[in-house]
Write a structure and sequence with these properties.
It is a single chain. With 311 residues, the protein is mainly α. Helix content is 73%, strand content 0%. It is built from 16 helices and no strands. The longest helix is centred in the C-terminal third of the chain and has 42 residues. It is globular and about 70 Å long. The mean pLDDT is 84.
């Protein structure tokens, strides 16, 4: 078939380049932030104001009240026997609970991320249980188990073992409320890394322990430290479950948060300064934790970006 002819007007000219007025317009990349400037300003002011009003202002108030009677009174209140006992007990409980959760977190995350077994989903649900159960309820459960009228109470009393209203009960409560932190930091990272590095190490003749020590552990060290840091912060500041199991005996079973509550109920200026002094010490520990947390987040993000570039 002959090619179809297209009618072209006599005065038609095919354009060879863009019109001058179009070519002169510079290309502008559209911004991902499409809100007006005033909207962004309002949002920033609201966010900063909220943080300042509900976080920074109370923190500043705690330190102002703690030093309101001078540095001498501040350190004297922290040197008082009940305060020293509360500080020692808090550090002791933290020193027991954090390593216990460290061992459990590594074991649970390694089992969940590296192996397939029946009940895996149920184990993950149990790890998240302390996030959904009130610490006070956890304390009551331990009372029903280990109290004098509890399930194990008669046997414990017959063997002269005291858990409730003693240090073991406080340790159990602290372990319960803090054990998800290490595991929850390690599980997603180990699942993302897979088992390739471990299989390569095993194929080269490394034992299981050496594979864990020199391959698995270095790959998750920053997430592990981050989880330990969060676990430590929660252990020192736990109140609900500990208040149920401790009996609140000053000088024996009062931790730092419980000592703050006990001092605040005496309704005297000296007791008020004592409460704020102890609170300022906890706040200072929280600030140190925040600084370390920021540092670990920076190193963790840098590690992830380096791994992404390597792959």
């Amino acid at each position: 078939m002959p090619a179809e002819k297209v009618f072209v007007p006599p005065d038609y000219q095919r354009p060879t380049e863009s019109p001058p007025e179009v070519a002169a317009i510079p290309f502008r990349q559209r911004s991902a932030v499409t809100e007006p400037v005033w909207v962004r300003t309002i949002l920033i002011v609201v966010a900063v104001g909220f943080v300042g009003l509900f976080l920074l202002l109370p923190l500043v108030f705690v330190f102002v009240q703690a030093f309101s009677m001078g540095f001498g009174e501040y350190f004297e209140q922290l040197s008082e026997p009940y305060a020293q006992s509360a500080i020692r007990l808090t550090l002791l409980v933290t020193a027991i609970a954090v390593p216990a959760n460290l061992v459990f977190g590594i074991a649970a995350s390694w089992a969940i991320a590296k192996f397939e077994f029946k009940g895996k989903a149920f184990l993950i649900t149990l790890i998240d249980l302390p996030f959904s159960v009130s610490p006070v309820i956890a304390g009551l459960v331990y009372v029903l188990l280990f109290g004098a009228q509890g399930y194990f109470g008669p046997w414990l009393e017959a063997n002269d073992i005291q858990i409730i209203f003693a240090v073991p009960g406080i340790v159990l409560a602290t372990i319960f409320v803090t054990f998800p932190f290490v595991a929850r930091e390690l599980i997603p990272l180990m699942q993302e890394q897979g088992t390739g590095d471990e299989e390569a190490a095993l194929s080269l003749g490394a034992s299981g322990f050496k594979t864990f020590l020199f391959v698995t552990l270095p790959n998750v060290k920053w997430a592990l430290l981050y989880g330990v840091l969060l676990c430590n912060a929660r252990a020192m500041g736990e109140f609900g479950a500990v208040s149920v199991l401790s009996g609140r005996i000053q000088g024996f079973t009062n931790t730092m948060p419980l000592q703050i509550e006990a001092a605040s109920k005496e309704f005297s200026r000296t007791a008020e300064v004592a409460a704020f002094s102890m609170a300022s010490l906890l706040a200072l520990l929280a600030l140190v934790t925040l600084i370390l947390k920021t540092f670990l987040e920076w190193r963790y993000a840098d590690r992830l970006s380096s791994s992404a570039q390597a792959h």
